[in-house]
Amino acid sequence: MKNTRKRSDRIERSSGNVFVDLGLSGAADRQTKVRLAVALNRAIDGSKLRQAEIAEKLGINQPKVSALLHYNLEGFSVERLMNFLMALGHDVDIVIRKARPRKLARIHVSAA
């Protein structure tokens, strides 16, 4: 089998944030929202509730729950997503620490 890779093809190491790699504005905020939405979707899936019931718990309408489930996050702030997690019975911990030398400061979201 012949190698089809051209010499001009380059592989670049990711920055760790796909939104930065794509050159999108608000990359840190976008990544934080996606990570919160992943945790939120796991919480919703684990609840076994219908979208209408989730909407009532979150104080939003069912179409907005559908938007969350499909990662359409433009109408949601980081704070609002955190409040949704708390409304579903999840703690949200924020840890602040000094960035390591030679590294850019960042927001990191991890879900247990």
Q: Which terms would index this structure?
A:
46% helix; 434 Repressor (Amino-terminal Domain); 112 residues; single chain; mainly alpha
The fold-level CATH name is 434 Repressor (Amino-terminal Domain)
Number of discrete helical segments: 5
**What is the rounded Rg?**
18 Å
Q: How much strand?
A: under 5%
**Helix coverage percent of residues?**
40-55%
Order of helices and strands: HHHHH
CATH class, please? Mainly Alpha
- Structural class of the secondary elements? mainly alpha
CATH superfamily: lambda repressor-like DNA-binding domains
**Count of the separate structural domains:** 1
Q: What's the average pLDDT?
A: 85
Model regions low in confidence, pLDDT < 50 over at least 5 residues: none
The CATH architecture category equals: Orthogonal Bundle
What does the main sheet amount to?
none
Number of strands: 0
The end-to-end distance, rounded to whole angstroms, is 45 Å
Mass-distribution shape: globular
